Protein 1
Amino acid sequence: MSKHMFFHREIDQLKDMVITLGTLVEDRLRRACAILETQDEEESRKIMTSDWEVDDMEIRVEEECLKILALHQPVARDLRLIVAVIKINSELERIADIAVNLAKRILTISEKKTSDFVYVLDYQPMAAKIMEMVKTCLDALVTEDAALARQIFLMDDEVNRARDQAYKTVIEEIGRQPADAACLVNLYLIARHLERIGDRATNIAEEIIYLVEGEIVRSSEDP
C-alpha cells in the first residue's frame, strides 16, 4: 500500500472514531435530558459513573490526530481536518461532562428539596433543542455541510432565550418557595448547563465551517 493510500485510510479511520465519540456523547446527553423529566436518581448515578467511556475515546481520538500529524505532516485541507477534529473532539468531551453535571443537579435537588417543592420549569423544549443541535452538528460533520452547520447559530439563539426565561421564572419563584431557594437556584443552573451545551455545539459548527470553507467563523455570543 502506498504512503498516500495509507494516509487517507488513517484519515477515514479518524473520521469514524470522532463519529463514534459523537454517538457516545449523544447517548449520554439523551439519557441526561430524560432524567430532567423523570428525576430518576438511579439513572443519574449511572450517567455519572459511565463518563469514563467518553473520556477514553476522546484520548484515543487526540492520540490518533497527533500520530497523523507526526507521521504525515498534512497540509492544506488535510491539515484543516486534523485541527478541526482536535477541537471538535474536545467540545464533544465537554458536552459529555455537562451531561454529568445535569445528573448531579438532579441528585442535589432530590436530596435537598422539601416535601412542598414544585419543579417550576419544563426543560423538555430546551432539552429537545440542544439535542437537535448536537445531532445536526454530527450530521454536518459527516456530510461536511457548512450550510447545515450554520443552522446551529439560529438554534442557539432559541436556547439562549429559553435560558433567560428560566432565570426570570426562578427569580419570581424564590419569593413563593423561600425554603427551597437552593433547589430553585439548582433548577436555573440546569438551564445554564443546557445553554452551555448549545455553546459547545455552536463551537463545533464553527469548526465544521472552517474545515469545509477554510474560513474562521465566530458566532456573536461565544463562551
Note: The radius of gyration is 19 Å.
Protein 2
Amino acid sequence: LYLDHIIGAGAMMAGLLVNAGVGLLILFRLNHDRAQNLKIIGTLYGLGVFWGIIIEFAGIVF
C-alpha cells in the first residue's frame, strides 16, 4: 500500500511499530496476565500512533 501511494510513511510506520500480528498472539499465549497484556498493547498502540503522527508531519519518506 505504501509503494502504491495509498498510505503515507506515517501510517506505514505506525502499523509496523504497533507490531500487530503473530507477536500479539504469542503474547496472549505465553503470558496469562490479561491486565499486563492490555497494558502492553495500549503502550504499543500509543507509541505507534505518536511516532506515526511525528513521521507524517515531519514529511519523512522512505
Note: Residues 9-58 form one domain.
